[in-house]
Amino acid sequence: MPQTNIVIASVLKPLKDARSYYRFGISMRETNKYLINIIGFSTKKESDEKNIKFHSVYSGKRTGVSRLLVGWKFFLRISQIKPKLVIITTYELLPAAVLGKWILGYKLVYDLQENYALNLSQNKTMAGWKQGLAIRTVTFLESCARPFIDHYFFAEKVYQEEFPKINKQTVLENKYYGDLAGIRSVNLQSKTKLRFLLSGTLTEVYGILEGIEWFKSIQTHFPEASLTVIGHVPMAKFGEKLKKTASDHKSIQIHVSDNPIPYSDILNAYEQTDIVLLPYHQVPSISPKIPSKLYESIALGKPCLFQTNPTWETICSGYPAGKGIDFSDLNHSKEKFEDFLAMEFFVHDNRWDAAEPLFAPLVWPQEAPSGTPEAALTGHSYAWKAAENIPQLQQCVC
Q: What is the mean pLDDT of the chain?
């Protein structure tokens, strides 16, 4: 029986993105019924895998002129693939996706990973008339496409409040998806060569500079400590500022790129660290969300320090997995860090190992495994879980 073609498409996300490839693609391919076509960013050819094909439609700079042609390239590619289902992960591809739906007749899902308009107003990536124009453009595209979208995926629960007019939606948070090994309790008090990590997308509002300055204040008292900063820097000026801030400290290792970093590199960095730093600014575009790095830290058994946030504190407290601090309060950094070191982490393993395919049952409920162990959840589930009986999506693939 021939496989059904499915497309998962982005522009600036790497082909092996944490969400599109690891959470969606790998989960779906386990049925062996579907051929998943992942479309996105890549500067090199990615080898195809079992039931997964990779298609690069962009490899240039974030602000490159050639980015204007991405929608057309995407349309030509899906015209060749002829998918039954298309999942779009960015507003940028909505016009081409709607056109393709009209011509090719596929079902269209918008995976809403960000509140883009709110981000543009809060995250300091643009200013002046450019910011206003970008916000209006995003709002216009998303509003015009809404009648043609069959279903939405929300990457954050808070989007249910921020987008109250959208009722055809399912929340699929950015929880860790991968093989789970048993974790042991962690006590860092006797360790002197502490290894810290800042990773992922590196921008000003993610508190990267505050995290570095905080580390410097701690290193005065823990001279053998080290910090690794690894990730994607989308803003060139911020990247220069970041490198300058760390240039005179040999204990700070900078591994950054203006292109997306492979998720496998981020996971390797986790393996080499003792403490994960999450110094996010508590602005409206960030504070209601739950960072994927928080889920990853819990899943991998790595204690984390995060900017004080009641929701994140609640999630971590059951294990415990981390502690909230004020990264800008350098006068009390040593005292607060010593309180953190006095804790014993992961005394309770409340994690849930979701071994079944996690995404396919959402689109095709008849394939959902029976007996999903909801009652086994004794804490906040950090991993992806199978969803059952979603009637809105039963007709996504005919």
A: 85
